[in-house]
Amino acid sequence: MRAVKDNALSLFFLALFALTVLGQALVGHANENEELIRHDQAPVSLGEFVTSSEFLVDVSENWQSEFLQFFLFILATVWLVQRGSPESKKPGDEGLGTDEDQMVGRHARPDSPPWARADGWRRWLLANSMLLVMGTIFLLSWWAQSLGGLVVANQEAMDHGELPMTWLSYVASPEFWNRTLQNWQSEFLAVGCMVAFSIYLRQRGSAESKPVGTPNGTAALESE
């Protein structure tokens, strides 16, 4: 039970993720079969649907926009600040920080990750591991979205007696970027609102909020 309590936030969102993917698979499968029956085609099994390009596109295009959002947010907060927002460092703290601030090298604590005390590529890898992982997942999911979307688009082209597209022509097509930019703009709006709203709004007890009595122009870290 101690392990569950200590990891409750991660487990909570992991459970929500699993439930929503399952829900998406079930309702997507039902919707797909409704469309097939409407066009006098045979329905597909749930297994066939969740391994189809249509399902891959719907899942991967959401993943890539989410991980792009976090990739850019993490990168931007290294160099850019927003006065009064708990999502930002205070003005004047822009940049990578000193070794002492980051507790690396001779400034590492006894319980710091071992690579924080290392030199060269190991420390660099640890120091940039979050961006590298977020960026890699974004690129892989974007690539998966493009491949799945290409299969769907070429199937529709065949149904209409048109020539299939190459991967390059598909990723340069208005259809691909229409779907992609719809997701991106919503993610950027959500992050921008979170940064701006957190200057003036509070949620008592939340790590994503400043203490209730903190002045609007002061970030949570400045008030400590």
Walk me through the structure.
By secondary structure, this protein is mainly α. It has two domains: 1-51; 56-223, no CATH class. It is built from ten helices and no strands. The model has no long low-confidence stretch (mean pLDDT 87).
> How do the helices and strands follow one another from N- to C-terminus?
HHHHHHHHHH
Distance between the termini: 32 Å
DSSP strand count: 0
Mean pLDDT rating: 87
Q: Helical segment tally? A: 10
Main sheet properties = none
Class inferred from helices and paired strands: mainly alpha
**Percent of residues in helical segments?**
55-70%
Number of domains: 2
What is the overall silhouette? elongated
Low-confidence stretches: none
Over all CA atoms, what is the radius of gyration? Answer: 23 Å
Proportion of β residues? under 5%
List the helices and strands and how they pair.
Layout: H1 2-6, H2 8-38, H3 46-50, H4 53-79, H5 99-102, H6 121-127, H7 129-159, H8 167-171, H9 174-200, H10 220-223
Helix pairs in contact: 4-7, 4-9
Overview in brief:
This protein is mainly α and 224 residues long.
Give short descriptive properties of this protein.
elongated; mainly alpha; 224 residues; 2 domains
